[in-house]
Design goal:
Blueprint: E1 3-9, E2 13-20, E3 26-33, H1 40-48, H2 51-54, E4 61-66, E5 70-71, E6 74-76, E7 83-85, H3 86-93, E8 98-102, H4 107-110, E9 119-123, E10 133-138, E11 142-150, E12 153-158, H5 171-184, H6 197-209, H7 214-227, H8 240-249, H9 253-277, E13 283-286, H10 294-297, H11 300-307, H12 313-316, E14 321-324, H13 329-341
Parallel strand pairs: 1-4, 4-8, 10-13, 13-14
Antiparallel strand pairs: 1-2, 2-3, 5-6, 6-7, 9-14, 10-11, 11-12
Helix pairs in contact: 6-7, 6-8, 6-9, 8-9, 9-11
């Protein structure tokens, strides 16, 4: 059995994994603190030299998903001083085939190989084989990638669509936009300022800024601590989006309203981006919120906002929407891309 090397490279942590080629079975894995290493190559050599990895054949191909843009087989990581090149990594790590892929775009390569346990239906529909697919991921920011069909399977195309202009659909969303421009000191408001996990926190902060009750004032205080980066009682950074989601589930009116507004904006943006690439092959939702907000994503605010595109409703109606549940989808998708290199 031959093996594949998959890397999920982030500014804070890097996950290196060894997979079996045939069934994409995970054989070995190690997590590293990225800043502890001067470059990726010595980290890879260290990983491959560990007993767990050495117990298997040396990988025939490798794919590294990196947090940053990739051009011409080279990448400058956004939050690390590493400059990576496919040819150099192959030489330094004694690897025959190496691919660098943006860490969100790489998800495209994992989609055709997902098992039922790795996903959950959000909206039923019928995907058309050979048509483009769309992946969105609302986490700290909003990731967007498009999969274009080719003779050799899907080809990932990275996108910066999340940095397009946020388009308010109502007086309420217009007021939110104006407040955020002023509060954050911005000249323009990008989509991901609202449609992301961070965006949910911003929506809650805006609603609580109009505090009318003691509970609302409490929300406002939490929002100020979160925005200021103040730690919570256990020393970690306060997680306002998670607190809002939990409060909404417990019946808190302000938090529930924040969730409805956020889900409506998310659904609308999903529909806009699906029209932009005619994603008749299906839409996939990833990121930190997908698995945690299945009920919300299946609710009317998201689903109706997705489809409410006037004359183009009939274009969106047949498209299925699926949530990705696997927290290791980045590593898994990198392994799928590495396997493609073997031809």
């Amino acid at each position: 059995m031959s093996t594949l090397l998959a890397g999920d490279i982030g500014g804070t942590k890097t996950l290196l994994s060894l997979y079996g080629t045939d069934a994409l079975e995970l054989l070995a894995q190690e997590r590293f603190t990225s800043a502890d290493w001067v470059d990726l190559a010595p980290m890879v050599r260290h990983f491959l030299d560990q007993p767990e990895a050495r117990a298997h054949p040396r990988p025939g191909a490798a794919c590294f998903a990196v947090a940053g843009p990739v051009h011409g087989g080279q990448a400058q990581l956004t939050n690390l001083p590493w400059k990576l090149a496919e040819s150099r990594l192959a030489l330094d790590c004694d690897l025959e085939r190496v691919a660098l892929v943006n860490d969100f775009a790489v998800l495209i390569y994992g989609l055709p190989h997902l098992a039922p346990s790795q996903m959950a239906s959000i909206r039923a529909g019928e995907a058309i084989t050979g048509e483009p697919v769309l992946v969105l991921g609302a986490g700290t920011g909003l990731g967007v990638a498009i999969g274009l069909p080719t003779e050799n399977g899907l080809q990932a195309m990275a996108s910066e669509a999340a940095h397009g202009e946020f388009a308010p659909r109502s007086d309420e969303e217009w007021q939110l936009r104006q407040w955020l421009l002023d509060d954050l000191g911005l000249e323009r408001l990008s989509i991901e300022r609202v449609v992301s996990g961070t965006g949910l926190g911003h929506v809650a902060r805006w609603l609580s800024s109009q505090a009318m009750t003691a509970d609302d004032h409490s929300h406002a205080a939490k929002g100020r601590r979160w925005q200021g980066g103040e730690p919570s009682s256990d020393g970690s950074r306060a997680d306002l989006p998670a607190a809002v989601a939990a409060a909404a589930a417990a019946g808190d009116p302000l938090a529930a309203k924040a969730m409805r507004l956020w889900l409506g904006a998310y659904g609308s943006v999903t529909g806009d981006l699906a029209l932009g690439c005619l994603a008749r092959g299906g839409i996939w939702l990833a990121g930190g919120t997908a698995a945690k907000q299945l009920d919300g994503l299946r609710s009317t605010p998201f689903i109706e906002s997705f489809a409410a595109k006037g004359r183009l409703r009939s274009t969106l109606e047949p498209i299925p929407i699926t949530a990705i549940l696997d927290p290791s989808i980045g590593s898994f998708s990198a392994a799928c891309r590495a396997r493609m290199l073997l031809g």
